[in-house]
UniProtKB/TrEMBL annotation:
Domain ATPase AAA-3: 49-179
Domain spans labelled ChlI/MoxR AAA lid: 252-321
An example molecular function term from Gene Ontology annotations: ATP binding
InterPro entries recorded: ATPase_AAA-3, CbbQ/NirQ/NorQ/GpvN, ChlI/MoxR_AAA_lid, P-loop_NTPase
Organism annotation: Methanolacinia petrolearia (strain DSM 11571 / OCM 486 / SEBR 4847) (Methanoplanus petrolearius)
Keywords: ATP-binding, Nucleotide-binding
Protein name (database record): ATPase associated with various cellular activities AAA_3
Length: 328
């Protein structure tokens, strides 16, 4: 086993260097959002999708676009609006009068990187058009199924402060996102650096530092990273605590309407593996699980009216769960 771990560590160190090259390239444009960038790289490595939430003007769209520019892949930005139609995303069939045949016009979903900007501004029918794509990596256009390009990565943004004219994401769709990442205001020093860069003629375009094939290779390796049975049991226990908090001595039954799905357990393990890779390790530790747990669980815990009335958030409950569940 020691020799296997040593070999995994060797490979992880190599891939970690490549992922950190992406991070450093993104940081040439994006200031003070290191944790957000790390979580985007974790999801990219693990093959999951990301829902990025934050107030307007803090560079959510720019961060995602900059990340896509560092990778030699296709990029599509879809601006979600109330008048958007499903066919505007997946494509449609068009009749050709000259030859009397139908031809398929593929939509912007047929790209490696998809930026779903302000996803909660589109009606549910449009939002659901992403469900099949995100889960099955394929879309259906008028009865015909088309596979999507590999690697396929959806990064959606939403604004938490403007509810007028928005449509809450269905729980089924929210669960498709591996991570829900919260993007906050930059620190004062970082904001001064932002001013220097964006008001002083600072122009640096990110360079492509990794290929699409290498991303696919990294995703395969993430699944090979070693996680012992106790780590997997720990992940399952964290998820179980969202459904049965009393079982773990957590007084939160009145605050949780519905706990996390089994998909959360899967993403906890994959996310922990991807974080271990980012750290240059070929094995998972409990700290890897703790690092990614809030981002995996926060959008999968449905709160009761009582929780909302008392100002209890899902992050508050996750913190209690992490403190209460026994660490291996």
């Amino acid at each position: 086993m020691d020799s296997e771990i040593e070999e995994l560590n060797r490979k992880a160190s190599k891939y970690s260097e490549q992922l950190n090259n992406i991070k450093n390239e993104v940081k040439k444009t994006i200031v003070g959002q290191d944790e957000v960038i790390e979580r985007l790289l974790i999801a990219l490595s693990a093959g999951g999708h990301v829902l990025l939430e934050g107030v307007p003007g803090i560079a959510k769209t720019l961060t995602i676009k900059t990340l896509s520019e560092c990778i030699d892949t296709d990029f599509s930005r879809i601006q979600f609006t109330p008048d958007l139609l499903p066919s505007d995303i997946v494509g449609t069939r068009i009749y050709n009068h000259q030859n009397g045949e139908f031809s398929t016009v593929k939509g912007p979903i047929f790209a490696n990187f998809i930026l779903a900007d302000e996803i909660n501004r589109a009606p549910p029918k449009v939002q659901s058009a992403l469900l099949e794509a995100m889960q099955e990596y394929q879309v259906t256009i008028q009865g015909s199924t088309f596979p999507l390009t590999n690697p396929f990565f959806v990064l959606a943004t939403e604004n938490p402060i403007e509810s007028e004219g928005t449509y809450p994401l269905p729980e089924a769709q929210v669960d498709r996102f591996m991570l829900k990442v919260m993007m906050t205001y930059p620190e004062l020093e970082d904001e001064v650096t932002v001013l220097d860069r964006f008001t002083g003629g600072y122009t640096v375009r990110p360079e492509k530092v990794i290929s699409a094939d290498k991303i696919i290779e990294i995703r395969r390796f993430v699944k090979e990273i070693y996680a012992e049975s106790e780590i997997k049991k720990y992940c399952a226990s964290l998820v179980d605590a969202t459904r049965n908090p009393g079982k773990y001595g957590i007084d939160a039954a009145n605050y949780i309407s519905c706990g996390a799905s089994p998909r959360a357990s899967i993403y906890l393990v994959l996310g922990a593996k991807a974080h271990a890779l980012l750290m240059g390790r070929g094995y998972v530790t409990p700290q890897d699980v703790k690092f990614i747990a809030p981002d995996v669980l926060r959008h999968r815990i449905l709160l009761t009216y009582e929780a909302e009335a008392e100002g209890v958030t899902s992050d508050d409950l996750i913190e209690k769960i992490l403190q209460s569940v026994t660490v291996p």
